[in-house]
Amino acid sequence: MSIDETQLVALAQKGDVASLERLLEDHYDYIFSICRKVIGNTEDANEATQEALISIVKNINSFKFSSKFSTWVYRIATNAALDEIRKKSRRPTTEFNEETVTTESKSSLEDEVIDRIDVTTALQALPEEFRIVLVLRDQLGNSYDDIGELLGVPAGTVKSRIARARQKIKEELLGNKIHSQGVKEVNDG
């Protein structure tokens, strides 16, 4: 006999530790994925994931079954990621990022790494309201309605933010391509 998610939540709310643990295990990868994509690095995403899990445990009894449990969990994960970004913005940072360094000499691999760095940089440069919707839609595959429910905004607002975010990313990437082509021309010439 298989227990569905609603039954697991009800059991967890009654104090069943095994049900709570199963819920956390079932949602861990997606929580981490949201945090990683919103924040942009693994270390801070791990911190946000742990905070999200703690929040779920502390607040499981506040879940009212008015939405899907997964929507509630993902809202918590998104908020934990945003909180981590805010905390990080108050910490001193360095310019060097080991995650973006490669020693491979193959130009196609270098180009792929540079493209990925450019996209990550452009995504991280977006204001939170644009970055969140873009990550939830394009990287995690959520529907406009689910994103709207998750963030507490109408689906039309989600669509508008996604369109504006994509335009800003496009402008940033085109600007980087033009700049890097100019640098290559100088270096090659």
Q: What does it look like?
A:
The chain has 189 residues and is an all-alpha fold. The protein folds into two domains: 1-93, RNA polymerase sigma factor, region 2, helix turn helix motif (Rna Polymerase Sigma Factor, Chain: A), CATH 1.10.1740; 102-189, Winged helix-like DNA-binding domain superfamily/Winged helix DNA-binding domain (Arc Repressor Mutant, subunit A, Orthogonal Bundle), CATH 1.10.10.10. Helix content is 76%, strand content 0%. It is built from eight helices and no strands. It has helices at residues 5-13, 17-39, 42-59, 69-89, 107-125, 128-139, 144-151, 155-188. Helix 3 crosses helix 4 (69-89) and helix 5 (107-125) packs across helix 8 (155-188). The longest helix has 34 residues, at 155-188. The radius of gyration is 20 Å and the shape is globular. It starts with a helix and ends with a helix.
Give the helix/strand class. mainly alpha
Q: What is the CATH first-level class name of the largest domain?
A: Mainly Alpha
The CATH topology of the largest domain corresponds to Rna Polymerase Sigma Factor, Chain: A
**Helical amount:** over 70%
The overall pLDDT, averaged over residues, is 79
DSSP strand tally: 0
Question: Number of DSSP helices?
Answer: 8
Total of domains = 2
Give the CA-CA distance, first to last residue: 70 Å
Beta-strand content:
under 5%
Give the CATH superfamily of the largest domain. Answer: RNA polymerase sigma factor, region 2, helix turn helix motif
Largest sheet: none
Instruction: State the order of secondary-structure elements, H for helix, E for strand.
Output: HHHHHHHH
CATH architecture of the largest domain: Orthogonal Bundle
pLDDT < 50 runs, ≥5 residues? 93-106, 182-189
Evaluate the radius of gyration: 20 Å
Shape: globular
